[in-house]
Amino acid sequence: METTHKGRRKLIKILILSVISLPLIGRFLIPRIKHRKVLLRIKKAGVPGGGALIFGQKKIAVIKENKDVYALNLTCTHLGCTVNATTKGFACPCHGSVFTTRGDVVKGPADRPLKKLAIEEQGDDVLIMS
Ligand code: FES
After folding, report:
1. What is the pTM of this model?
2. Which of 41, 75, 105, 114 has its CA 20 to 30 A from that of 89?
């Protein structure tokens, strides 16, 4: 009689631990879906070929080279100042880092390229995502 109670208690403990641990295990087994936020919506035709649209308030540059449209975050990767557009790319007014139009570092102290933002085309519009 005593052994059946112990067996039942053990089974209940295992069930309770299983129920508690399932969400924790699932967190590691199920990949997290990253929800992107739309930062900007613009007309594709509004981006000048070989040029860029600068959205200073949002710190975003939308650039069109040939038929390739891409967006860069204008936050300097050194210490976070906002970079300025130049004829050859971008320059940081704080410590002098220089970046190409693709965001690659030409001159430090920044050692990482400007962050490229995700783009999604929807008909005539281009969505710039976080
Ligand atoms: S913050 Fe841009 S170079 Fe330092």
Report:
1. 0.69
2. 41
